[in-house]
Amino acid sequence: MILWSRGGKNGVGILVDRDLRELVVEDRRVSDRLMSIKLVVGGFTLNVISAYTPQVGLDKEVKRCFWEDFHEVVRGIPHTEKLFIGGDFNGHIGAAFKGYDDVHGGFGFGVRNGGGTSLLNFAKAFDLVIANSSFLKKEEHLVTFQSSAAKTQIDYLLFRKSDKSLEAAREVLGVSKGLSNGRKTDWWWSTEVQGKVEAKKATYLKLLESVDEEEKRTNKERYKVAKK
Questions:
Q1: Which of 71, 62, 111 minimizes the C-alpha distance to 91?
Q2: Strand, helix or coil at 17?
Q3: pLDDT tens-place string over residues 101-127
Q4: Which own/partner pairs from 108-116 qualify as long-range (CB within 8 Å, at least 24 positions apart)?
Q5: pLDDT confidence band for 225 (50 / 70 / 90)
Q6: b/e per residue, 209-228, with b = 16+ CB within 10 A?
Q7: For residue 155, how many C-alpha atoms fall within 13 Å in the half-sphere facing its CB?
Q8: Which PANTHER family is this protein grouped with (predicted)?
């Protein structure tokens, strides 16, 4: 499977292997910067999102609309389904996690900028992890865009922390055979955890909707409290 975006003129796409084509049960094009597909593979449901974040210098309204659409797409995916996000996010998350150790693995590239911070906040709000930053790699394997003037990392892969932690638990500890509340379920997804995640999502959306500096400062403080 290949996720694709193009510069100059907007556009995103997802190329699916011929063997997987019949497993696609839904495709959704939200905009020329955002699309998703849903597959049922081996007993589980997988959602794949391809994204192309507005570039630096574009109107703030364009950026706000993109992040709101992105927020709605991810929020609409049940936690019982797997999620894979890839795309050109036009931002630098930086080499070190610096306050985002729960979503940034500490193996990034370059210096963080505003676009990178937006992506990190988004990942934090939805309990995602940035896969690119989770493994030690050579510089040439981190850089995703290079010109005669600069080289940067702007393309990222994200997935839910729960998927990562469950796979790690499966490999190290084995699979729990127990039941929770008399039924097989994702026992880690408690009411308390759900409440915290929903609170983070709500405060994050309020931050995106801020229209002036005072409101933005207030909502930023509320978001900082919610994401702890």
A1: 111
A2: coil
A3: 889 988 888 889 989 999 999 999 999
A4: 108/132, 108/133, 108/142, 108/153, 109/139, 109/142, 109/143, 109/152, 109/153, 110/152, 110/153, 114/56, 115/53, 115/56, 115/89, 115/90, 115/91, 115/154, 116/89, 116/91, 116/92
A5: confident
A6: eeeeeeeeeebeebbeebbe
A7: 17
A8: BUCENTAUR RELATED (PTHR23227), CRANIOFACIAL DEVELOPMENT PROTEIN 2-LIKE (PTHR23227:SF67)
